[in-house]
Design brief:
4 domains; seven-stranded mixed sheet; 20 strands; alpha+beta; single chain; 18 helices; five-stranded mixed sheet
Length: 526
């Protein structure tokens, strides 16, 4: 096992604030780097991107995010060839026109934009003072760069306790972006696919910002990010802005499930996010969203009755994924229902990225109820006092208690955020006397670990602080990643029961207090 460099991970974590996960990745080079370009006969499902820059670092870590994958990740079929200051990227298996997200960072700047591409495209990226795209379909490639430089108000749009004001501002932002789009297609030569896909991106970007208001502050950046659960919670409160209960239909407008009968948009990030959110918080009509068996069945029934084909496959897979992430299926009472649906969906779904995600969940679920294998007991850790201790000794010192193994690192911004946000909750849970929090750092360097602990002193005690030694040969990391997996995502929370059995190999984030507490309650009531 090997890690991506910490500074790269920190940047990735910053860009992925919503998902907030840092990656321990074995595959550090997706392609072959050579000194000369080869002549390559491309299939019509490939695109070639040549990049030139005066910022060499910008070419070292370029990411192409493909949202046709289940959760949107770096494109799989990516190869590289390098010569001097130019790198040629070949992206295979681009099956249809779609929007990719590109980001990189150099010595003095970060570069991030979206780009509309089609199979067979040949593109030149110039990364100098900014990022520019050249090619026969240049108008396709440069749209989002020009749009966001002229009108990038979503990042500064905030919910500030007045939903009507928030909606009005959101409407104005969408209308301005829509006008820019209309002017752009009138003055540039673009394809029908571009008009369809990019127009949909703007529409569903707007709808998602309505149903998931930007209500989560990112204090260090001065802006807010989307909260997909916000409307469901606030709609149950009275005295909304002194106007009584919130009428979601009035707030969201005339949106119906027919607006989402567009399977060709399953490679579109905002369409997929909006589809799930509107089903969960609007169309399915939950009285209270608590990730229960009843709500799971309600949402499942709605999807099965209203969606077909690829749309249904995606929505049902996302239902299983989201509920599992909230702890559903990790208790004794709801595990059989989750296992049944997992098995059925794995056998039915044809999309490989959906199937792989379902199999990962099944693998995680299969770990629960069993004691850790003997080989993990010999994993070694260092204490703050420079003593060496095994995992077996750590677990023995907390025997007869529920243990939460908190895997983190000094370079993982989401890990730090979780530690800071959950100090009160951890203390409250610990006060019951039957739960212990065990922090396991996967920092390679001791000084990074101890310096980070010093900065986190207001949020942590020195008790149960350990740093993993010999990470590449760790038995527990290998066990939790089922060996064949490429990544170990942090932060990660593994719950070990009083009899040393694995209760949850991937528990909800503690900052998701209700979901985490519900899981702990399920464990106590087993």
């Amino acid at each position: 096992m090997s890690f991506l460099k910490p500074n790269i991970l920190l940047f990735l974590c910053f860009l992925l604030v919503l998902s907030q996960a840092c990656k321990h990745d074995e595959k550090t080079n997706n392609g072959k780097v050579e000194t000369v370009f080869k002549d390559t006969l491309l299939s019509n499902k490939s695109i070639v991107i040549r990049s030139v820059t005066n910022d060499q670092k910008a070419l070292e870590y370029v990411n192409f995010i493909n949202y046709s994958y289940f959760n949107g990740t770096n494109h799989d079929g990516l190869s590289e060839e390098k010569m001097n200051d130019t790198v040629k990227f070949t992206l295979d298996d681009i099956n249809q026109p779609q929007i990719l997200e590109i980001f990189s960072f150099g010595d003095s700047a970060r570069y991030n934009t979206r780009i509309f591409v089609s199979p067979g495209d040949s593109i030149i990226i110039s990364v100098k003072k900014g990022i520019d795209f050249i090619g026969k379909n240049g108008a396709h490639y440069n749209f989002f760069k020009k749009l966001d430089s002229a009108n990038d108000e979503w990042s500064t749009n905030k919910y500030n306790s007045h939903l009507k004001d928030y909606k009005n501002l959101s409407q104005h932002i969408y209308q301005r972006r829509q006008r820019f789009f209309n002017d752009y297609i009138a003055n540039n030569q673009v394809s029908a696919d571009f008009i369809d896909q990019v127009g949909a991106e703007l529409k569903f970007e707007y709808l998602y910002n309505l149903i998931a208001p930007r209500a989560i502050p990112v204090e260090s950046m001065g802006w807010n990010v989307n909260d997909p659960e916000f409307l469901e919670l606030i709609s149950k409160q009275s005295d909304i802005e002194k106007d009584g209960f919130l009428d979601l239909r009035d707030y969201l407008g005339p949106v119906t499930i027919d607006d989402f009968q567009r399977p060709e948009l399953l490679n579109n990030d905002y369409f997929k996010r909006s589809l799930v959110s509107f089903i969960r918080y609007y169309f399915a009509g939950h009285d209270l969203l608590n990730y229960s068996s009843e709500n799971f069945k309600t949402e499942q029934e709605y999807i099965q009755n209203h969606l077909t084909g690829d749309l249904r496959d995606f929505a049902l897979t996302k239902l299983i994924y989201d509920y599992y992430k909230k702890g559903f299926g990790q208790g004794k009472s709801d595990k059989p229902l989750m296992e049944k649906n997992l098995q059925e969906q794995i056998s039915k779904v044809s999309n490989l990225s959906y199937k792989e995600e379902l199999k990962r969940i099944k693998e995680d679920l299969d770990l629960s109820g069993f004691t850790l294998p003997a080989k993990v007991n010999f994993d070694q850790f260092t204490t703050l006092g420079n003593d060496t201790i095994t995992l077996s000794d750590i677990l023995k010192s907390t025997k007869n208690k529920i243990r939460v193994l908190d895997f983190w690192a000094s370079w993982c911004a989401p890990c730090i955020s979780e530690i800071e946000k959950t100090v009160t909750m951890r203390n409250d849970l610990k006060s019951f006397g039957d739960l212990e929090w065990i922090f396991i750092s996967i920092d390679h360097h001791k000084n990074n670990w101890t310096n980070s602990l010093r900065e986190l002193k207001p949020f942590l005690t020195s008790e149960h602080q350990y740093r993993m030694l010999n990470i590449e040969k760790s038995g527990i990391l290998e066990y939790l990643t089922k060996e064949e997996r490429e990544t170990f995502m942090i932060p990660r929370y593994v719950i070990i029961g009083t009899n040393d059995e694995v209760i949850s190999s991937s528990a909800p984030r503690p900052s998701d207090f209700e979901a985490f507490k519900n899981l702990i309650d399920k464990i106590k009531n087993r």
